[in-house]
């Protein structure tokens, strides 16, 4: 479909890519062994750490996010190792399946897919594990299938309280650069990130921020690994290079993404996401729908998963909106199939993209005859107005 | 201001430029005397005629639209010639001033800046002119300062009824490619067009579609001209070339613009503009404001000029909206300064850009404390819904 | 023809456009009445002066170079005014024809098309003109049809020696930004420039740098003018804006062009052009051909016009090279038609583009069976080697 | 270094990326679960097969080429499996190291790094292996460190003659799309490819073309795998989608790359590479240097590795050329460090880029005082002239 006007890519990632980033992506590929590349590599390897709030190494893979999941596991674990994985939703469950495929014994702690990681439950489970059989705890910071953000600091406290030495592995693929995150302060051992959400790049780069404890574990971990090997990366990265051909153009674009985040200020970026999320939820409440997330403190700043009333197809609604309004929304995943649709409000956007998005949903609801209270977009506008304007506030 | 998200360029032109057009603009400049250029030139010179609905020559200038105004005058007139110019608004009055500068005696027929050309009045004036002193009638099809579109077919009928041989010169800078227009059928002698509105290009190209009668007049016209000379252009154009260096990259982009218009279909393009205009006016009415245009049949499909209540500054509102919502709106021109703001809804857009735009205005009204009835955006959405969806209709 | 590899655009302009400039051209059009534009306008209007070496106004037209020729004439002259124009070649002769079309009495001082402006001859003619009937002297700095650069400082001295008040109008369309030029120091009254040569932009912008004396003359000049009117431009430019819609995207790109020229340094840019020209001439001499320019001190740094031996078609050679090597060369213009071809070595290029170009010509000569001594490319390489490397020298 | 002119990226990959491909890369990311993506995915998955000359599945990874090496191994092998790897040079030896890291027992058959795979030797070794302990034979089609292309058809014949069931795994990372290759006809089981060489894309995509025999082996292979799992890919690919987020923008660009290859015709592309390679070798011979490859029939069409005389530093030469001529060349790898430099002549190039490249090397040799016979560039030009012109031939 080659519709007029700009496509509204309101899935919860990949997010809308700003033109300066696309423009950097389209600059010619440079020699990845030449001096200009060395400078570029050193710069982005250094500056990406700030996004993770870490002073420890961040490994950058020329691979999409699923690869960084695998990297986190194969660098730290051995065949048959026991890990505890909390199933917040679809993506957490995919990570569990991956662990199983790789020969890891994944103990899945089931969640209700409507709330975040229960730190206390994990703490209790670890406290039971006196033999320290559990080698790692794996959680998803922002569950993209449900729109729930978990409290990683609380999880850290629970693990500390249990006095358990398990590694803490956290997936931030859909939160990195959009939601506050503190790799060092929260004592995370491996943080998994991707390029195509808060970093506003296309998919194709992914990250592992790694603690010293994780590197020590890696020295003993026996899962086979080569492409994902951290230490080869870290060694070559010292001079700004990579052990094999990196995704040169993506790194050129990453530099611009970091410039844009720095220029706005990470704190302002996070505030902007929260405002958009609140406005979106105001619309959803007004329509009379439930969000998939049911814990007020855990609503995601990145996306809102909306539950449709019984008997209405979320996929038909999304198809209607795509055809009518040139806007893509996220689908319901796994058990939420066709019941839920997901509105992304992340990356490069501002208030009018939020209201445009919500108006598109509201017009779609009307067109499909799905009962709702009209005026969600006004509720969103009131929310935005009551929440100050980051632009104007910053100028004061 | 380097705000996040896409800028909403909702001035009544230049319009939002689609990425495929920008991409064509950024392809390397080619040899304007080489064979590839000859093919490109021949193609765009031929295909642009369809946009004017003409089978006669269209001259393409490597200059912005004001230049094509000058070209229309200097090719057809001699020093001291008497012309009749109807002042629909600011742009019509600028064209009058240009005529005076060029040594033409411009008789200005004043309008009220809230309605279109009065064909009957012009017909009456021409009927009086038994000596045929009036060499040309100059009107603006779509007056960008007021949001009024005039009925050119009616004007043609009035001129025919008066049996007057004056040339008919029409400015379509802000209507070309957005509003139905028929150069041949309506017997227009010179149609002036520009690249940066309905053609969705940046500014930098402009057009004269010229009738045989206009060319005959040109043969006798004595205003000095060289850069603007039609016949040099038409002669060189026969083989796809230009008498002097053309704006090569703009022509590369024009080809893509023509592809996009053809792909959507001109009739669908016009319908899309009318829908957007109706939705915008529904919002304006809901807010309780007047449009500058006060004749129902003459509302422009391209832009809506909105009158603010006394005592409120349109410029302060526009500044607020720019800072708050990263959206540019058009200002009030000349006597409408600070009383009127103009909303562009033209070129490359769709429903969500309309509702996003209107929501931005409504949030700005609230922020500035300008009394209005809230819910304009809902009125716009109802208008859009009641007007069918060109996309869906086309698919049926 | 969609040949593999980068097209070598070795015509003497438009020149090869660097990717960062194309990228800036492809950034979305901004509101030409908004605050961001005001900043951009003010910056480029100020910085462009350095390229002309002037502290006086530079008017920027949204039109290609031929328009700026017309602007120089219509702002300073009245119908029937007598001007002295030196015919260095095809482009000088086109300017003469334009003057005649505009109703100016152009006295043409014939040249031999193989050398530059004879300052003494002009001085002598002015000295004769005791009544000061001659209102302006018009010359082309770098004659693009012949590859000859004239000595403007010498012309200034000759005019001063004659004590004649005529204005000095100089076309620098093909030299600006490639060859040293000093508008203020050389006492030029109007310098005409274009975007598509040394400034490395596509065609579509042109310039008039204007002296106070020229502005004083303009106040009395009576040729009709509106689009080209300096004073409307200068007045609006004071705040960074334009009296009518400018070529927004070209101005965005001009900023980047100025950045690139500043980053390299104008003096280094000029040296780079001279090196390329010397290398090219070394090849031409080696082949056994004559350059069209026959005065050693007047060889153009921008292009080299090469004369083929009798009986060989320059156009057939160019067509062969285009088909075989994906390279465009300039044709012979006017009386030089098919006898001369022109090699552009200007704008964004370096040594390998020079040697690549020359090798392409040499392979074409061989393919067409045109007698020549092989090894021109080696002569060019020796010339480049003997001339130092600006890159390496700058680094020392 | 921000030198003027286009960088000559003459490393043996990544290759120079054509602007239409960069432009497609810079089009906004689309929804990887939406209908437009499904069409794109289906198209590129289908059309890529032609480049491999296969009708079997080609798996596309959102990862650079090294990843596809790992994929080939982990999908087909089990821990401790015995494989035979022929060490043609540096890249073959890296693949061996990877196999070892992954827990595979790699039997390395040493080569001399100056010639290709010895099919007979492999055949003999397989014939000895009556127990069929050897599960796979791994070779590199085009060894990028030495400029040697091996004869895969001969290897297939030798394996068949030995009647051995080992899988045949072939790395074509630097030959795919530049050198004739026939996955099906040659009975290859896994062909490993990458995006950044003959496909003219940036790095970031890689490929496994897989035979039915390979898929059958995969069903039993026990090396842990998840990200690299073929069957998940092949299942999702059936409808044009991927099991996890693909590198969307790279796939958009891949479509354009396939268009370009189809438009030129693969056979013409291969001929163009051979011509460039022959011309380059003509220059090297003229200079008096040896190529690293010493078997006439095995010279690579993609790159030429040049041996410098003893006592001269290849790295110092490359640095000189980079500074002086804005050209990157490949370095000597492993034992060839500083003795060899590598000239890439692949991807998007034509004759003038070849001669420009060679002239840059020759100027560098002179500048570094490395003894050589001048005139290599002339030898290259003669070679090109004697080899016909694919462009002209195709037009006949």
UniProtKB/TrEMBL annotation, chains A, B, C, D:
UniProt-recorded name of the protein: Aminotransferase class V-fold PLP-dependent enzyme
Domain of life: Bacteria
Keyword match Transferase: yes
An MF annotation (GO) of this entry: L-serine-pyruvate transaminase activity
Required co-factors: pyridoxal 5'-phosphate
Domain Aminotransferase class V intervals: 31-326
Residues recorded as bearing N6-(pyridoxal phosphate)lysine in the entry: 197
PANTHER family in the cross-refs: ALANINE--GLYOXYLATE AMINOTRANSFERASE, AMINOTRANSFERASE CLASS V
Keyword Nuclease included in the entry's annotation: no
SUPFAM superfamilies xrefs: PLP-dependent transferases
